[in-house]
Write a structure and sequence with these properties.
By secondary structure, the chain is an all-alpha fold. It is built from six helices and no strands. Helix 1 packs across helix 4 and helix 3 runs antiparallel to helix 4.
Length: 113
């Protein structure tokens, strides 16, 4: 899996400065963070709707969810790239949470107003 993330990160990085007319990713970067966030939000909503429709014995609905999650992850990686945050930082944070109760981890977060 990390090989896929590494390859995708390399591609996304190379497309950041590509011609926006010839690259979808370059076009997103060119339009700025708000456009990227809009796409992340759109994909998150589509993921939720697809998940709601999954039936255990229905390969088509399961595949639809897989496709939507892939879109969400992809656009999340574009967002991270735009903000100069390496995906490894996210993986490190997930690894840090191993062995920590989800309730304890959540309680340790700073309280937001």
């Amino acid at each position: 899996m990390s090989d896929t993330l590494e390859r995708l990160t390399d591609i996304l990085e190379s497309r950041r400065s590509a011609d926006p007319d010839s690259s979808y990713v370059a076009g997103l970067h060119h339009r700025g963070l708000n456009k990227i966030l809009e796409k992340v939000g759109e994909e998150a909503t589509e993921t939720l709707l697809a998940a709601k429709d999954v039936k255990a014995d229905d390969a088509e609905s399961r595949q639809a969810l897989i496709g939507e999650v892939a879109d969400l992850w992809f656009h999340s990686l574009v967002m991270l790239s735009h903000l100069d945050i390496d995906h490894r930082e996210i993986l490190d944070e997930l690894a840090r949470r191993f062995g920590v109760s989800g309730l304890d981890e959540k309680a340790s977060r700073p309280q937001s107003s």
